[in-house]
């Protein structure tokens, strides 16, 4: 009888342990599923723009060479300066289930955008009558998302008949709102 009881207790213990581990595993899968993690309202907590022309940082190029007025140069400097993400703090980005996306601030609201997650590390945002925006997901947790976009254009900025390589990289850190 003691033998059966010990055997029964052992089986019960193993069953309880496997049930606990499988439930924990299921909970971890829910928490790490990008399609679930991305749902919700997010705010921009930081962004880091980097713009180069032919490999030279834009901030190192005199504004006269770019054809910028003094005000345009000041706005560009403000946009590129550290801490300028505070300008974007009022923007809320809402990822909804079904691939719907909304962006709103005090000045505007756009709720008819679509998004798609591809291979868990790419976020594609579709804007009607425009080229899709492709973002690389660097990190996605239940509270933070870091995304990166890179664009490269060949453009004759100096109007000398030769194209310059304009490269823009934008790293954005989003924080999920409660």
Give a description of the structure.
Helices cover 28% and strands 41% of the residues. The radius of gyration is 25 Å and the shape is elongated. The protein has 178 residues and is of the alpha+beta class. The chain has an eight-stranded antiparallel β-barrel with strand order 1-3-4-5-6-7-8-9. Strand 5 and strand 6 form a beta hairpin. The chain has helices at residues 2-32, 34-37, 63-66, 70-80; strands at residues 40-53, 56-57, 92-95, 100-104, 109-118, 122-126, 133-140, 144-155, 164-176.
Layout of secondary structure:
Elements: H1 2-32, H2 34-37, E1 40-53, E2 56-57, H3 63-66, H4 70-80, E3 92-95, E4 100-104, E5 109-118, E6 122-126, E7 133-140, E8 144-155, E9 164-176
Antiparallel strand pairs: 1-2, 1-3, 1-9, 3-4, 4-5, 5-6, 6-7, 7-8, 8-9
Task: Give the gist of this structure.
28% of the residues lie in helices and 41% in strands. With 178 residues, it is of the alpha+beta class. The termini are far apart.
Key attributes of the depicted protein:
28% helix; elongated; disordered N terminus; alpha+beta; 178 residues
């Amino acid at each position: 009888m003691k033998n059966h009881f010990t055997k029964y207790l052992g089986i019960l213990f193993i069953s309880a342990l496997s049930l606990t581990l499988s439930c924990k595993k299921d909970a971890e899968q829910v928490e790490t599923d990008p399609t679930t993690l991305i749902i919700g309202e997010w705010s921009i907590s930081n962004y880091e723009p980097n713009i180069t022309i032919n490999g030279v940082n834009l901030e190192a190029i005199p504004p006269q060479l770019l054809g910028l007025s003094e005000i345009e140069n000041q706005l560009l400097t403000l946009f590129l300066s550290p801490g300028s993400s505070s300008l974007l703090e009022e923007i809320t980005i809402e990822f909804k289930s079904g691939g719907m996306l909304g962006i709103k601030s005090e000045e505007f609201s756009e709720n008819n955008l679509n998004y798609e997650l591809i291979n868990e590390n790419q976020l594609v945002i579709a804007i009607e009558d425009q080229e899709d925006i492709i973002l690389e997901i660097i990190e996605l947790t239940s509270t933070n998302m870091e995304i990166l976009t890179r664009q490269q254009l060949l453009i004759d900025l100096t109007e000398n008949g030769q194209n310059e390589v304009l490269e823009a990289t934008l790293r954005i850190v989003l924080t999920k709102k409660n």
